[in-house]
Design a protein that fits this description.
heterodimer; A: 118 residues; mainly alpha; 3 helical TM bundles of succinate and fumarate reductases; 4 helices; B: mainly alpha; two-stranded antiparallel sheet; 70% helix; flat
């Protein structure tokens, strides 16, 4: 049988699925809905000093990297397989574009978190 | 080759023919919202690395009408993803038995839904008061 990398991609899809099922709704609610307008969340809570401190701590870096990268690995895997459902016969190019995007975003996030420092 | 033109059933819009397929496609579409949200966070990390003014501009951009509409839509979509994720979970794992009886699937799903609710409260409390 030909070896495939599907188990790795499915694991990332699964991990991202669990993480986004657990934290997706509350994160979108906080960062996208209440924090920007300062409703039920004081402005200091998402102010520069606090978010910078988060991104400079090991725990914060790990959390940001896991959330951004696993959400994307999950989403791009689903989008890739949905292309078939929409009648688009996706080949190697579409796979490279979908998973490549997730990979580049993961590396970019890691790089930025490194630049932000400790 | 012969000039036969075999009938091929058109499949355009197949998922609109049945509510089950509709729900399936809505669930799959939630991934698009999740991907865009992750990119917004990634841009946020990028702006954070550029300094206070850039980060402030990113935060201010999130108050725009398009951003607000997007985040409400994304919230609905990802809530639906969370609902379906835990609903399907029992079918993807070995059956669990307690005292010779199989634990019903809905009980296992309920653990997932409760975990999402519980963690949401914890994350909100940490973000606001910690």
């Amino acid at each position: 049988m030909k070896r495939t990398n599907e188990p790795i991609l499915w694991s990332l899809f699964g991990a991202g699925g669990v993480l986004s099922a657990l934290l997706g709704p509350i994160l979108i609610f906080i960062t996208g809905i209440i924090a920007p307008v300062g409703l039920w969340m004081p402005p200091e809570a998402v102010g520069y000093p606090r978010v910078l401190a988060l991104a400079q701590s090991w725990c914060g870096k790990a959390a940001l990297l896991l959330v951004i990268s696993l959400f994307l690995w999950h989403a791009m895997h689903r989008i890739y397989h949905s292309l078939h459902d929409l009648g688009i016969h996706a080949g190697t190019g579409a796979a490279a574009a979908c998973y490549g995007f997730a990979l580049v975003a993961t590396l970019a996030t890691a790089w930025l978190l490194l630049i932000i420092g400790f | 080759m012969s000039a036969r033109k075999p009938y091929i059933r058109p499949m355009d819009g197949w998922w609109r023919r049945n509510p089950f397929f509709m729900r399936y496609m809505v669930r799959e579409a939630s991934a698009v919202f999740l991907a865009i949200y992750a990119v917004i966070l990634l841009v946020g990390v990028f702006r954070l690395s550029q300094g206070e003014a850039a980060y402030g501009a990113w935060l201010a951009a999130l108050t725009g009408p398009l951003a607000i509409v997007f985040h409400w839509a994304a919230l609905l979509a990802v809530c639906y993803h969370a609902y379906t994720w835990w609903k399907v979970m029992p079918k993807t794992m070995p059956m669990l038995h307690v005292g010779g009886r199989r634990i019903p699937e809905v009980a296992l799903s309920a653990v997932g839904w409760a975990a999402t609710l519980g963690l949401s409260v914890v994350v909100y409390a940490l973000a606001r008061w910690w």
